[in-house]
Design a protein that fits this description.
The chain contains five helices and no strands. It has helices spanning 2-10, 12-30, 37-46, 49-61, 67-97.
């Protein structure tokens, strides 16, 4: 318990930044009009390509005998890929709605 309190005491500024960023994010997202949610979410999902690259880098530097790190990296790659593909599928469906019918 002492270690946790010491860690919090040493990193209190980072905790303040985390809490403030969460509050600002909630405030910004709540002000977005409903019609813009789909393009914003599909764009945000596409940004998860960074998660895929980060997971691949972590897996590349992990020792071969550390199964937990390799498993978590693999799960991150799979879920990040699903999120990116889902973002592009949602964007494609959204753009299909705006095409003129023949």
């Amino acid at each position: 318990m002492q270690e946790i309190l010491r860690f919090i005491g040493e990193n209190i500024e980072m905790l303040y930044i985390l809490i403030l960023s969460v509050l600002v994010g909630i405030e910004v997202i709540s002000k977005v009009p409903t019609i813009l949610h789909t393009p914003l979410m599909s764009g945000a999902n596409a940004i998860h390509g960074v998660v895929i690259v980060g997971a691949i880098i972590v897996m590349g530097h992990a020792p071969a005998d550390n199964i937990l790190v390799l498993l978590l990296g693999f799960v991150a790659v799979v879920l990040g890929t699903l999120n990116v593909v889902g973002g592009f599928v949602v964007t494609d469906r959204m753009l299909e709605m705006f095409k003129k019918k023949r």
